Automatic annotation (TrEMBL), chains A, B:
Residues 3-140 form the Saccharopine dehydrogenase NADP binding domain. It comes from the Bacteria. It holds the Pfam family Sacchrp_dh_NADP. It comes from Streptomyces anandii. This is Saccharopine dehydrogenase family protein. Residues 145-398 form the Saccharopine dehydrogenase-like C-terminal domain. InterPro entries: NAD(P)-bd_dom_sf, Sacchrp_dh-like_C, Sacchrp_dh_NADP-bd.
Amino acid sequence: MRVLLVGAGGVGTAITRIAARRDFFEAMVVADYDGSRAESAVAALAGDRRFAAERVDASDEAAVAALLGRHRCDVLLNATDPRFVMPLFRAARTAGARYLDMAMSLSRPHPERPYEECGVRLGDEQFAQAADWEREGLLALVGMGVEPGLSDVFARHAADELFDEIEEIGVRDGANLTVDGYDFAPSFSIWTTIEECLNPPVVHEAGRGWFTTEPFSEPEVFDFPEGIGKVECVNVEHEEVLLIPRWVDARRVTFKYGLGGEFIDTLKTLHRLGLDRTDPVTVPGPDGRPVAVSPRDVVAACLPDPATLGERMHGKTCAGTWVRGTRDGAPREVYLYHVVDNQWSMAEYGCQAVVWQTAVNPVVALELVAAGAWTGAGVLGPEAFPARPFLDLLTEYGSPWGMREG
Amino acid sequence: MRVLLVGAGGVGTAITRIAARRDFFEAMVVADYDGSRAESAVAALAGDRRFAAERVDASDEAAVAALLGRHRCDVLLNATDPRFVMPLFRAARTAGARYLDMAMSLSRPHPERPYEECGVRLGDEQFAQAADWEREGLLALVGMGVEPGLSDVFARHAADELFDEIEEIGVRDGANLTVDGYDFAPSFSIWTTIEECLNPPVVHEAGRGWFTTEPFSEPEVFDFPEGIGKVECVNVEHEEVLLIPRWVDARRVTFKYGLGGEFIDTLKTLHRLGLDRTDPVTVPGPDGRPVAVSPRDVVAACLPDPATLGERMHGKTCAGTWVRGTRDGAPREVYLYHVVDNQWSMAEYGCQAVVWQTAVNPVVALELVAAGAWTGAGVLGPEAFPARPFLDLLTEYGSPWGMREG
């Protein structure tokens, strides 16, 4: 397998460090818009000659396709911002390469009834091309990070081995991460967090299909394992709700993000004040003359860069899938989860926990594809494949998953 | 009396409309950095030839002094932002004119113990020049809006006519104003509100003197009159606490602002995110190139301009002074207050309530100075003068004050 990894930010760099310890691939070309980021990622691997650095603009389909051809890559691993999903997705098919990403093409709210009906859904643009990928016998494995990704694998595992009938599948994400020296320091891009949390959340129900709600709807307190404890969770738009119902039967599918009461209030305040806006406002510039800036960019500029906070961060992050249904006629409820302790990921890989947890899953998936354990054609989610080999290989990577019953 | 009014914003414009109905002055020159604002204010007075518009930069002392001379003005009324207090204060003395403002020179927190000790206090820079004003026989009447201003007059009145001994004087400000069509629309400049509320609040105690506390300290629920009702109030840095103890004996002097729980939480969130900062952050500009902007300016730009909200505003605003002490050996407690209903001020003057309430008091004070009822030299607060003539004249202006006993 020869991989083109596009994106050498936090997650891309963690992918190189995880992959460097495995031998399932022959080459990994690391490409970024900022060539020096790609070079730094490769330089940190101390002479592993399978890695090479390149510069590429992810929005330039032709340049990406040419890069795939020049390095004879047979798979494109997308570790960029969701804005670049479509050009990279198209470039892979143009070059006849398989494609894997960790977030799907973006949604657009319903123009009239945004908090009741879906407009363009997450992944719609990708699924619209599914027939083309199938016809060409090419695999696009979409949403293959931790959430979406491992959370979808958990859903498949529950359906295959743990339940006869499933009432509800609820992905639940929570953490107890704190950052020394900061009152408020999100562990993930605030720009993206605002985008996720203020978009209308999507829910799926059998018979009704997909629909949306008001932001922050259906709050619940979820008790996360391994000492993280209780965190307030609310509905958030997320890929799992679009993926799971395509391959797994369940009466209801939700995604709730454990933002915690304080963070939810902060996002609501930003929204109430219009500071989440991306369309510009006019303010005095450095010389007193007016300049137009995006309020959301200003919010991001006031906060520390989460990728730089690993050394000051403490605590654990948990991704998981809660499932309720019946087994042998009796009610059953399980939470399948994966916890990463920041202290461990920093010591082992020099990567903060949230970034490392996102990065390990696409590497595991690539190894299964390389080995032929996961095979298929078309645009497929992680739940389209057998879960057991994935979960076993994740454990072999030194990062076991867990299950809480009841 | 010939008045130079500097500042033709909301308050300055209201001053012209209130003054136009009185005959104690011969001329009022309305000057603003934005000449068109001054012209609009004058144009709205339908040919009252006592008014004239000028353009002036309030930070340019020499230009302001020259303008005073050119129009033979004997008093400068400052209706600008507190940043311009010192240049205008100095310009008046240079030109041999009396001076009146509604906010005093700015404070600077104590460099090491900001929430325990005062650094530079509100008005310190002005009081430092008191001897010069006295020597020249010139009057600077400072803090002569509604709060500070009328609130200080109430304190004087309580000491003169209502109490033998005063335990505590607590200025309390609250409102039930709402704005149609906005979830969040402060009725006063958010820039100034942030400045007031996030500076360390100051308290005065006999024996201990002035000291500071953490922002939002000593929360209490105060019941405001005339249907406004209970509002959560917290300590805020305000001029009254610096003025009242210089002329009125009381064991304790505080200022609490009825911000309400939601507004307090909003300000705390802005502070936690660093969005209250005035030092610039760097963000992408319109052409993608980085520009430096002040986060607090961006917050202000996201919110509607409070001066334009009068038509959509409903409710009342209350300024007042709560006093506890003894009279004839018995305990006594009173709240002296002044309420303005936005519907009334819009109908009568086309000015929103908070702005009109600020503007009426300096006009009443000027009339007392013109009549010789208020006379003196030096840097003096409103409580340095007899209260009764002020309160009677305010009632004559059609805006009576009230007193709640017990």
